[in-house]
Amino acid sequence: MKKQLTILTLALMSLAATAAFAQKKDDPSKRPSPPAKAESTIDGAKLVISYSSPSVKGRKIFGGLEPYGKVWRTGANEATTFTTDKDVKIDGKTLAKGTYALFTIPNEKEWIIIFNKNAKQWGAFDYKESEDALRVTVKPSKTSSLVEKFNISIEGNKVVLKWENTQVEFAVKG
Length: 174
Known about the structure:
The protein has one helix at about 1-25, and strands at about 35-40, 45-50, 80-85, 90, 95, 100-105, 110-115, 130-140, 140-155, 160-174. The protein is mainly beta. The chain folds into two domains: about 1-30; about 30-174, no CATH class. A six-stranded antiparallel beta sheet has the order 1-2-3-6-7-8, with no helix packed on it. Strand 9 (about 140-155) and strand 10 (about 160-174) form a beta hairpin. It is globular, with a radius of gyration of 20 Å.
């Protein structure tokens, strides 16, 4: 009986430790690239951009960790999502209301901003160009100083992406 009690106790302790580890591991706020959000209303359209915010950590980001000419999830972890509750114009092109995965293709002289219909993806591993709702091309610029944590903000009628020494933006109108 004592042996069975010992085995049961060890089994319960092991189960509790596993559950605690799994809970900590699955807690998005404990990730190395924690979740972040940018929200605003532009011309009556409510925008919500949900993303994960990786850090530079001394690495070369664009043209290094994130190669030029390849689709990037525009953050870390799950694909970044862009939600609008009304139809909007992105740099003059119409995007229907809805939730989209926000991908980018970084390059030295221009970036392609992609709104993809498949918003529920992990990274860009299952990205399919055939599911794009809209693409716009924008010019990158240099930031005035190092931006350690990837950041998306909504400033006036522009969505601004900044990381390392690079900034890109696109206009949104309702």
